Amino acid sequence: MTDKDKGEIRDETQAPPSSDRAAERAARQAANRAEREARRQARQAERVRRRDSPAAEVPAAPPASTGVFNILVVGQGQRLGMEALLFAASLRRHAPGWSGRLVVAEPRPEGAWAGAQTAMPGPIRDALTGFGAEILPFTAQHFGAGYPYGNKIEALAALPPGEPFIFFDSDTLVTGPLDRLPLEFSRPSASMRRTGTWPEPPLYGPGYGAIWKSLYDRFGLDYESSLDPGQPDEHWERYLYFNAGWFFGADPQEFGRRFLDWALAIREEPGEALASQTLEVLLDQVALPLVIHALGGGRPGPGLAGLDGDVTCHYRDLPLLYARESDLAVETVEAVLHDPRLKTLAEAWEPARTIVLQGVGRDRIRPMFQRDRPLNEGRTRQMLKKAGLWLR
């Protein structure tokens, strides 16, 4: 019996009285308001301190990031292991001055991954440590083969508490000086390279607003302050929604605890407003905006445009990289895979060997597409598969 089935037949007589639930919700809302106000006052005090500091009178160069921070990616098996290795090599190539910890989290073959082959091959592990990465194991208790995207939620437990972090999907390249971005870790944010994939409101309702509001109300969050007033009502971009390809925050333990608790709560009891919605693929992207909003964050500012821009590239798969990404991304992946430290490993990984080393990406895939406008990802995948060029 699935969790959804269990939720549907749950004995409603065991639920707390509605008055108790309302009181609990009001208490959570009050606590969250107090927490947000404390953060607001702290940020205001810091702005005042900087304004009144004599150093503020001297024009300064654009800041690098706010101190040293940790980077987290997931490595698992050959494919994700090679993707993590591409990330590590491109990081060292384009951000040589970055001095934080690069953590590659590897799920153990136990818990939710019991019976699965999760370990990265030894040569990939050796290459990762050669690029300064630390491989840290973690046990996934709640998500596994049934929802591998849950790795990013449970892997946060591998990071040390109280240290700022940024998570990247493994299929990401660093193409610029990541260490020079003005990351404000006290104001979490995430990738805006997304489309209106969730929710999908049914014809007769509820609509976008009612669906999202039900989640904010459920977790005691202020819904109105999450909206983008520049977008019309019932347009998907009005509502806080991210791609979970990257996100950052001040404390991975606090972030991860909320992320896990709320994702599990949504999965196990979606609620009436979400009854018609699919959660099997996008659960992380449903919970992520709630976590970021609860921790005082929101949409990234213009200073972070380089993420999913000229500083990082979430390419997803090598065929898609050649189909739609920038010349800089193509030059980066070719440079790192021709590096003698990676070339032997690349030859053993079919997508890299065929698409990059043998030139199929440049010679066949790249000429198939016009990149002067955004490409529809689904249509692009179909064209690549039809041409026999879909390798991953």
UniProtKB/TrEMBL annotation:
Region of interest (Disordered), ranges: 1-62
Biased segments, Basic and acidic residues type: 1-13, 21-54
Top-rank taxon, per record: Bacteria
Official protein name in the record: Uncharacterized protein
Protein species of origin: Paracoccus thiocyanatus
Organismal lineage: Bacteria, Pseudomonadati, Pseudomonadota, Alphaproteobacteria, Rhodobacterales
